[in-house]
Amino acid sequence: MRPVKVEDKQLMDGLNKVFRAKGYEGASLNELAEGAGLKKASLYHRFPEGKKGIGLAVLSYSSDWLHKNLYELLIDKKLTKEKRLEMTLTRIKDLYDDGKETCVLRSLSMESGMGIFGEQIKGEMNRWIRNFTEFGLEFGLSKDQSTRIAKQGLISIQGSLVVSNAMSDNSLFLDTLEDIKLKYKV
């Protein structure tokens, strides 16, 4: 019998979901295989480096998603800066299912994950800050103001996801996105 073909997007979305829910330490290979829609042997075949290789692939997939869906949008001069901001915040809202989902960067940075994935996570956060800093300059903000807003936006989004999930109140996350929008309206 021929193995079932799992498309890359389906595979990565399933692995991402498991890591978001369980973190690196908490995710077993059985759960990762089930989330990916594969048998454990097929998962090893696709990721011979094991769980670490799976985590690196998920981080790379997430980084690609952010680049294509957020960072490229921020520099798309065919749209007004206001429209780009609105669309970017909508995509962030969708990425985290209105604040109900955990960020995979947070999940993979817990426990031993930071020792394994620290450089990749730091790199992605620096890309976020760099891209949002450049975007803020279009609103007439100084480089320092724009960098502060970019950093604070990242901190606020991550923090509001934690608090929203802990309190079962996603309005905290949604309010954070509105606050970010207001920071660009100086």
Descriptive account of the structure:
The structure is a single chain. The protein is an all-alpha fold and 186 residues long. It has a domain at 57-183: Tetracycline Repressor, domain 2 (Orthogonal Bundle). The chain has helices spanning 8-26, 29-36, 40-46, 51-74, 81-95, 104-108, 113-137, 143-167, 171-183. The longest helix is centred in the C-terminal third of the chain and has 25 residues, at 113-137. The protein is elongated, with a radius of gyration of 18 Å. The termini are far apart. Residues 5-65 form the HTH tetR-type domain. This is Transcriptional regulator, TetR family.
What would you say about this model in short?
This protein has 186 residues and is mostly helical. It has helices at 8-26, 29-36, 40-46, 51-74, 81-95, 104-108, 113-137, 143-167, 171-183. The chain has a domain at 57-183: Orthogonal Bundle (Tetracycline Repressor, domain 2), CATH 1.10.357.
